Amino acid sequence: MVGFVSPHAGYMYSGPVAAHSYYNLALDGKPEIIVILGPNHTGQGSAIATMNEGFWRTPLGDVQIDTSTADFIVRESKIVDSDDTAHMFEHSIEVQLPFLQYLYGSDFRFVPIAFLMQDLESSREVGEATAKALTNKNAVIIASSDMTHYEPQKSVEKKDKLVIEAVEKMDESQLYTVIEDYGISACGYGPMIALITAAKALGAKKAKLLRHATSGDVTGDFSAVVGYASIAISK
Question: Which residues span the domain enclosing 9?
Fold first, then answer.
């Protein structure tokens, strides 16, 4: 597995969907480096921001940031800043860590990259830099994103299908186009574009939907739901 899309809502809503990605990752072995790309919901910090030192703490322990990989991406991309403030109150990357710690303890290093700016070219640029940083390394890339937000179930299913099809085709241009043309509120489309770009550069050939569901499947209220998808990208 080169990378995957995983949701980041409350665990009771999106956790069962995210678990499909992590199950597949567990079957694939243990990566040494994990780059986690997520949207910046808070508006704080730089437009595209990593952290290049320290660790993140969850109830399962501390996970160390991979300084050398983060620094390489900053140098290579020219548009990624090292800015802790972008991550202080942001959950999209953080919620992926307990899944990883359940599988591997804290015996891996990671690089967080938060996207406030999610245009096509910038996202591609991050993906290209990430691919160069991870070439010939035992690594995986996670794009943290929920899908369509707070629309009726049938609308969410229709819009999410367009996003999922673009990712399955590994076509980042198509993904950006459907987001724009249909006003789709998937919050992490920049991370997904960066993931697709990096995965192709690293030799990935196929993407597969593992699971799609909505918050309505949990609550029973289908009037205004959020969509979630796990999509694996592999060689």
Answer: 3-234
- E strand intervals along 11-76: 33-39, 48-50, 55-58, 61-65
Per-residue pLDDT of 13-55, as tens digits, reads 999 999 999 999 999 999 999 999 999 999 999 999 999 999 9
Give the number of domains in the chain: 1
Of the candidates 111, 149, 108, which has an alpha carbon nearest to the alpha carbon of residue 8? 149
Find the CATH number of the domain harbouring 33: 3.40.830.10
Sequence-separated (6 or more) residues with CB below 8 Å from residue 15:
none
Give the model confidence (pLDDT) of 151-201 as tens digits: 999 999 999 999 999 999 999 999 999 999 999 999 999 999 999 999 999
d(CA 7, CA 228): 6
Residue 129's identity, in one-letter code, is A
Identify the three-state secondary structure at position 57. Answer: strand
| Close Cβ partners of 145 (under 8 Å, ≥ 6 residues apart) | 5, 6, 7, 8, 38, 39, 92, 186, 187, 188, 189, 191, 192
Residue 169 one-letter amino acid: K
DSSP-assigned beta bridge partners for residue 228: 213
Nearest CA to 187 out of 3, 6, 4 is that of 6
